[in-house]
Specification:
By secondary structure, the chain is α+β, with helices and mostly antiparallel strands. 54% of the residues lie in helices and 21% in strands. It starts with 6 loop residues before the first helix and ends with a strand.
């Protein structure tokens, strides 16, 4: 990385300005030779200042070579070098850097071609090794990352790659870190961004997943049916030992059906006898009562009137009794 700074240019400008001002004053006093000498010295000093002054940013390290040999690492801040003797071939960035790399059409362990995209987070810990031990550390770490990714893909099954990206990332970090440690580079983390598989295989896997979900749904449905059957068996045992509870349940079911769905229901005569509804007359009266109540509610709703049926008082009720033939009879008051 080449470093540029405006500070040496500013110093050069100031030296030239001061030298030009002094030369102009000498020329004003007819000292032309001295003015030329001063101006030449100003140019020399400006060149030396421009060539020797360097400023490194907070995150940069400058590798200084003296006659081709490593002298020191300079920066951050202002430092000096000897012009024509010392050079700065590298400016090393010590911040966390990122590099993206990919593997195209790489076969997995079960011979499936995949495309994998990943990103590498790394940092230079030893700028001297990064500058002197490898020609181009950025290209080197990119190639090392790609070869490591291909090696990991070739040793991994497709299912493991799709399900365990964290494991693949950890393995890549370990391999790349071992390869880049001699260069003074530390691998912080590796993240697998995307795994692309062929479209035909993607459709097949989608169908397989759908079939698996349907199988699980059927298993759950069958288990629910089994549980419901067990509960029905327990309820049947309860009703077998308690006929009154069975009659109440049957009457409640009949009432809910008439109340919500319709006003006419067909019930076998055996069910009527078992529920003791008073024969056909009692059933008809129950149906007509529910129908009238529903009609009154519909009329009230059409007329936007709140329908509130009057509560039944005890003195308004008529006592009934069930006769031997199963009909409802009015009991005369005493």
């Amino acid at each position: 990385m080449k470093q540029s700074s405006s500070f040496p240019a500013l110093v050069c400008t100031l030296i030239l300005a001061v030298g030009a001002a002094v030369a102009f004053e000498l020329h004003h006093f007819s000292a032309d030779t001295t003015a030329v000498v001063v101006l030449a010295c100003a140019f020399v000093l400006a060149y030396i200042a421009t060539s020797s002054l360097r400023v490194a940013d907070q995150w940069n390290k400058a590798v200084v070579l003296r006659l081709g040999k490593f002298r020191s690492l300079e920066g951050p801040g202002l430092f000096f070098i000897i012009p024509l003797v010392e050079t700065i071939p590298y400016w090393i960035d010590t911040r966390v850097l990122t590099s993206s790399f990919k593997a195209v059409k790489t076969l997995t362990k079960d011979t499936v071609p995949v495309d994998v995209d990943a990103v590498l987070f790394w940092k230079i810990l030893d700028p001297k090794k990064a500058a002197l031990d490898v020609a181009d550390y950025q290209s080197a770490i990119n190639w090392a990352s790609q070869t490591a990714l291909r090696d990991v893909i070739g040793k991994t099954m497709l299912s493991d790659m799709l399900e365990g990206r964290d494991k693949i990332s950890s393995e890549l970090q370990r391999i790349i870190d071992v390869r880049t440690e001699p260069w003074g580079i530390n691998v912080i983390s590796v993240e697998v961004k995307d795994v692309l598989i062929p479209s035909a295989l993607e459709d097949a896997m989608s169908m397989q997943a759908q079939a698996e979900r349907e199988r699980q749904a059927r298993v759950i449905l069958g288990d629910s049916e089994r549980q419901v059957a067990e509960k029905f068996g327990e309820a049947a045992k309860t009703y077998a030992n308690d006929p009154v509870a069975l009659h109440l349940r049957a009457m409640n079911m009949l009432y809910e059906g008439l109340k919500q769905n319709s006003t006419i229901v067909i019930v076998p005569s055996t069910a009527v006898e078992s529920m003791q509804l008073g024969g056909l007359a009692g059933l008809t009266a129950l149906t007509m009562g529910l129908g009238q109540e529903k009609a009154l509610r519909e009329r009230a709703a059409a007329s936007k009137i709140n329908y509130d049926p009057m509560p039944v008082r005890a003195e308004d009720t008529v006592p009934l009794s069930v006769s031997q033939n199963g009909h409802l009879d009015v009991v005369a008051p005493r």
